[in-house]
Design goal:
Order of helices and strands: HHH
Strand content: under 5%
Distance between the termini: 54 Å
Radius of gyration: 25 Å
Mean pLDDT: 84
Structural class: mainly alpha
Low-confidence stretches: none
Number of strands: 0
Number of helices: 3
Helix content: over 70%
C-alpha cells in the first residue's frame, strides 16, 4: 500500500487550516506587555530580578560542567 493511498492521511489533508495572520505579532506583543507591566517597579525589585536572570544560567552551566567532570573522572577511574 502506498502511503498516499491511506484514507486517513487523505482525510487529514482535506481538513481546513487555520491561519489568523498574527503568528509573528503575538509573541512580540506578549513580550512588550510583560516589559510594560514591570516598568513602574522600584529598583529594589528590578535589581534582584535582573541578577537572577543572569545568575540562573551561569549556575546551571556550572552544575552541568561539574557533573561532566565527575562523570569523566569516574569513567576513567573505572576503566583503569
Amino acid at each position: 500500500m502506498i502511503p498516499g493511498d491511506d484514507p486517513l492521511v487523505r482525510a487529514l489533508r482535506e481538513l481546513p487550516t487555520h491561519d489568523d495572520g498574527s503568528s509573528g505579532r503575538a509573541p512580540a506583543a506578549a513580550r512588550a506587555a510583560l516589559v510594560r507591566a514591570f516598568d513602574d517597579a522600584p529598583l529594589c525589585t528590578r535589581a534582584p530580578a535582573t541578577a537572577g536572570r543572569a545568575t540562573v544560567p551561569v549556575v546551571l552551566a556550572s552544575v552541568v560542567g561539574l557533573y561532566l567532570f565527575w562523570a569523566f573522572a569516574a569513567a576513567i577511574a573505572l576503566n583503569q
